Amino acid sequence: MVLEMIQKENDIKKLSPEQLVQLSDEIRQFLIEKISRTGGHLASNLGVVELTMALHLTLDFPDDKLIWDVGHQSYTHKLLTGRKGGFDELRKYGGMSGFPKRKESDCDAFDTGHSSTSISAGLGYVAARELLGEKHTVVSVIGDGSLTGGMAYEALNNASRLKSNFIIVLNDNNMSISENVGGMSKYLSGIRTASAYTELKKGVEDTLKKIPRKGDQIVNQIRKTKSGIKQLIVPGMLFEDMDITYLGPVDGHDLRKLVRVLNEAKRVDHAVLVHVITKKGKGYGPAEENPARFHGLGPFDIETGEPVETGKTDTYTQVFSKVLTDIAKRDDRVVAITAAMADGTGLSSFERRFPQRFYDVGIAEEHAVTFSAGLAAGGMKPVFAVYSSFLQRAYDQLLHDVCLQNLPVVIAIDRAGLVGNDGETHQGVFDLSFLSSIPNMTVMSPKNRWEMADMLRFAVDFQYPIALRYPRGAAYEGMRQFRAPIEYGKSEMIRRESDIAVIFVGHMAQLALSVYDGLKERGYSCTLVNARFVKPLDTEMLTDLAKDHRLFVTIEENVIIGGFGEQVIEYASRSGLDVHVRNIGIPDDYVEHGNVDLLRKEVGLDRDTIIAQVLEDLGRESRQITEKDR
Hints:
The protein is of the alpha/beta class. About 40% of the residues lie in helices and about 15% in strands.
């Protein structure tokens, strides 16, 4: 196998043209086989095999810097830098990350996981290079979907001022996760169909430059022209008008052409954009036919492309999808918004049923939130469904555009809590903290599938900003007998006794019940409370429980700092409640990738660890009482 000859970075440069062709086939087969067992991002990686090979043939690692936007398409890069052995433990706890990681390899220039960041990071590298007087090449690879993110345009605006080389590779596969939308998608489609003009442009420039003394001057003058004719016949004018040289489009699966254009790009003395056309999922039929389904997936059968295991229980996302569609049937003011995640957030069925009331704004969470605010101000009932880790990007818009005006926008926060194998950049463990800090914001979290449905109905009818937070995966079906009506700001009493109160947030219900049972088995009197509302805090309940409880145990899958538990501590202290509070949550750190159950144990969100901490608190309190008696 040719792949076996790649033991470290730059080994690819030792291969013959024939071996390079074989290598691309072997890489695709390797990725399909490995990801079918471990899960991961398949379609995006199959689409950039030749592009990655070309980059490795034209760059020197680790001296040159390659920055992948999002980073889920970096598997071939990892193979070509000697990490083949890590694929058996890909995205597993303690194993190789599915994203670039600086601490994993010197060839990973920048940690990524969210979109539209690579050009900004690349510009920073270029500025550092110039200040330090270094000579290495900096390349940022960004997808066409990521160009819908505002941060990318901010970076392009700065890139136009560069006086030294910086290569931006636009990986254009006409896909983000869901199909691309908007003006940039249409613009790039026009360039794809105008590829014949690329050779025309180059031929005209080469001919004019041959004119003695005046050639370069004529070419520069033509470049500055803003005529409609130029806009029509020369591809890439959006970038050219920003003083960023445009090269392409080039076939992203033609290795020879890719190497040629990248070497040409290295000779440009300012910012240059190389437009590469690729096919997402290339080389594997099921992924080519349905690239969105093969974006990020678990283990699957190679022959059929079907998942190895399909859970029978509805996920929280599926419950959200069904209930929202049902609500929209009866209320024509309900509209749904996504930021290029219609499938992932469960809004695809809403789109099919109510296409006129569905909006995919592309990878643009900030815009999505303010757009939702405008819809609400205009009399509609917007529901913006978004992953927790991506909502972080729209904090200012939530604060300034939604909550300042107290507008009735529903934020449906999917993938809240630990999401597992995607790691630090995707763990949704900060939303309770940053949402709770915003005036006028209400935050709810359901304990099971039935409360999920009830809370969504409550949220859509609510007249003010409200966030509904729920996790990835199967919806909990326990505690079905507890289904009291949702009352604003009020918690739900599951079991009422005395001494120890276990108060949980949302999908921590099953864990909290297990802790409750464990304490009961040890002879303790316990109360079990479903918080329901993280904000506002049910202070009436806390005050009442403090009368006959000595310990509150709060359980949440969110960072402890600024979370639900800290609000409980603050209220207890401010109100002089005679009760000790033990907060159980995520420590002040980023959580690595791995199986969610393993990660919970690692951070102390498991039954045995929590019970041990409770017993430690009770023992400490008993010793303090004994010492007082003495």
